[in-house]
Design goal:
The protein has nine helices and five strands; from the N terminus they run βαβαβαβαβααααα. About 25% of the residues are buried. It is elongated, with a radius of gyration of 24 Å. With about 210 residues, it is α/β, with parallel strands linked by helices. Helix 5 packs across helix 9 and helix 6 (about 145-155) crosses helix 8. The protein folds into two domains: about 5-130, Rossmann fold (3-Layer(aba) Sandwich), CATH 3.40.50.2300; about 145-205, Winged helix-like DNA-binding domain superfamily/Winged helix DNA-binding domain (Arc Repressor Mutant, subunit A, Orthogonal Bundle). Keywords: DNA-binding, Phosphoprotein, Transcription, Transcription regulation, Two-component regulatory system.
Length: about 210
């Protein structure tokens, strides 16, 4: 089973025939789809979590697609947004992409373009969530270290040998080895290279 295709896709468009055509297309390719006639309807009914994506008409009565996108940003929505736009709204859609929207499709578009955009959006969403989970797990591991274990960690990342670490910290080599072993276990590292790569990658993502 393709678990990505079990992720919810929400179509938000005030044009019912157009919504129905997108619903038919996506369901015919085994996607899980829900339709909403307005941005307000979507916001009132859906709490976004896990993997998913939105297909949104950029110009709608009431709250526009662009206003919905901005509101979702304020709420920390994790789902990528694909805008559907008419020719006159392309500049607006380009600006939305610059501000974080995933993609936009100008009417009329072919079916494959929509399917490709949806696949890309779902893959992006999964990567974001995996990255967030990875960062959270690394933060928990670092928080589990004692002050001394963290000091040893920093020295190891600097490439220092146990004897040098012992001299720097004013402790015995055996004590360094004990702290180092516990630190490696808590960090879930199989090797020094594994440890260094994981911590460096974490700090780059955090910065």
């Amino acid at each position: 089973m393709n678990t990505t295709k079990q992720a919810p896709i929400h179509i938000i468009d005030d044009d019912e025939p157009f919504r129905d055509s997108l619903l038919w297309l996506l369901e015919s390719h085994d996607y899980q789809v829900a339709c909403h006639g307005s941005a307000e309807d979507f916001l009132g009914r859906v709490v976004s979590s896990g993997v998913g994506c939105l297909i949104v008409d950029i110009r709608m009565p009431g709250m526009s697609g662009l206003e919905l996108f901005e509101e979702l940003g304020r709420r920390g929505n994790p789902w990528p947004v694909i805008f559907i736009t008419g020719h006159g709204d392309v500049p607006m859609a380009v600006q939305a992409v610059k501000r974080g929207a995933h993609d936009f499709l100008e009417k009329p578009f072919n079916q494959q373009a929509l399917l490709d955009a949806v696949d890309s959006a779902l893959a992006t969403c999964r990567q974001r969530l995996d990255s967030t989970a990875s960062l959270s797990k690394m933060a928990e591991r670092l928080d589990s270290l004692t002050v001394r274990e963290r000091e040893v960690l920093e020295k190891v990342i600097e490439g220092k040998m146990n004897k040098v670490i012992a001299d720097d910290l004013g402790i015995s080599i055996k004590t360094v080895e004990a702290h180092r072993g516990k630190m490696m276990d808590k960090m879930g590292a199989r090797s020094i290279a594994d440890l260094v790569q994981a911590v460096v990658a974490y700090r780059q993502q955090k910065s």
